[in-house]
């Protein structure tokens, strides 16, 4: 079968694509690389100068680490994680600095500190969303800190995972003939969960439909096997996969996909080099 990739849907932080002719292990490797091998910025170290809020330093630091930071420009400005592993904290070559200083007065009611209160020194590395709550402060409380963000991989910690969804499924294909027994019950069942699909079936009368829409096909499977009899059959094509990617907002979905493909390609090249080196040692030995 010819290999092809067809874009089904693309937004800034989400894309869906139909992958044809590529083996499942390869597509799955790309999917996994979206989680583990695409670098993004995240807060890694926090220095506290004042904190008499209800939350311990460690809890606030953990919350800060999980705030998605914009990383599109950072990928070009900062070295990869491998080069900064032994760099001292605060090294401007590797770390972006964000500060936070909030004080509440004696008469002020409680205040919620949000991710938008973080002040970045580098405008290209800032919280993606300004409304993520960090802590609720009571009157006469203070929170003053400095946070250091660096590029990292999801395989190090969840705070460096750039995606919320990276999943694939086999392409569902519904074959049907409304002249066969069970057609009326079949259409009625399918129409309850997929009215648009039932409408297509009525217009066509017979044939097959690729279910490219982003829907759960569990109800369709149930209808076909319990209500449709000979009128319909549902297949899941193993050589055609729908890949869905949604990001945290740190990177665009397209950038995550391309970086994941680059990571898989680099791993394959390293494996081939290791195999060749092993072969050479065996021949020489």
- Weakly predicted, low-confidence segments: none
Question: Under the CATH scheme, which class of the largest domain?
Answer: Mainly Beta
**Tally of helical segments:** 8
Radius of gyration: 26 Å
If you average the pLDDT, what whole number results? 95
Please state how the strands of the largest beta sheet are arranged side by side. Answer: 1-2-11-9-10
Distance between the termini: 43 Å
What does this structure look like?
- With about 280 residues, the protein is an alpha+beta fold.
- The protein folds into two domains: about 5-35 and about 165-245, Gyrase A, domain 2 (2-Layer Sandwich); about 40-160, RNA Polymerase Alpha Subunit, Chain A, domain 2 (Beta Complex).
- The chain is about 30% helix and about 35% strand.
- α1 (about 25-35) packs across α8 (about 255-285) and α5 (about 185-195) runs antiparallel to α6 (about 195-205).
- The two termini are about 45 Å apart.
- About 30% of the residues are buried.
- The model has no long low-confidence stretch (mean pLDDT about 95).
């Amino acid at each position: 079968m010819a290999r092809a990739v067809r874009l089904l849907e693309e937004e800034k932080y989400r894309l869906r694509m139909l992958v044809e002719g590529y083996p499942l292990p390869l597509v799955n490797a790309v999917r996994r690389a979206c989680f583990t091998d695409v670098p993004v910025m995240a807060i890694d170290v926090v220095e506290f100068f004042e904190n008499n809020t209800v939350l311990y330093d460690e809890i606030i630091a953990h919350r800060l680490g999980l705030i998605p930071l914009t990383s599109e420009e950072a990928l070009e400005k900062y070295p990869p994680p491998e080069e900064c592993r032994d760099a001292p904290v605060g090294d401007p070559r590797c770390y972006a600095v964000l500060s936070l200083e909030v004080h509440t007065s004696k008469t002020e009611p409680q205040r919620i500190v949000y991710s938008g209160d973080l002040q970045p020194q580098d405008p290209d590395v800032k919280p993606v969303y300004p409304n993520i709550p960090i802590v609720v402060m009571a009157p006469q409380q203070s929170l003053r800190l400095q946070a250091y963000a660096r590029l990292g991989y999801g395989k190090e910690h969840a705070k460096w995972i750039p995606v919320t969804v990276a999943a694939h499924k086999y392409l569902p294909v519904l074959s049907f003939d409304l002249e066969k027994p069970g057609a009326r019950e079949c259409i009625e069942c399918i129409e309850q969960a997929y009215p648009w699909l039932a409408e297509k079936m009525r217009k066509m009368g017979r044939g097959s439909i690729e279910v490219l829409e982003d829907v759960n096909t569990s109800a369709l499977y149930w209808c076909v096997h319990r209500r449709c009899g000979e009128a319909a059959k549902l297949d899941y094509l193993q050589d055609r996969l729908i890949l869905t990617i949604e990001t945290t907002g740190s990177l665009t979905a397209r950038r995550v996909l391309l970086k994941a493909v680059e990571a898989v390609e680099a791993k394959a090249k390293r494996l081939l080099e290791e195999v060749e080196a092993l072969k050479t040692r065996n021949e020489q030995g």
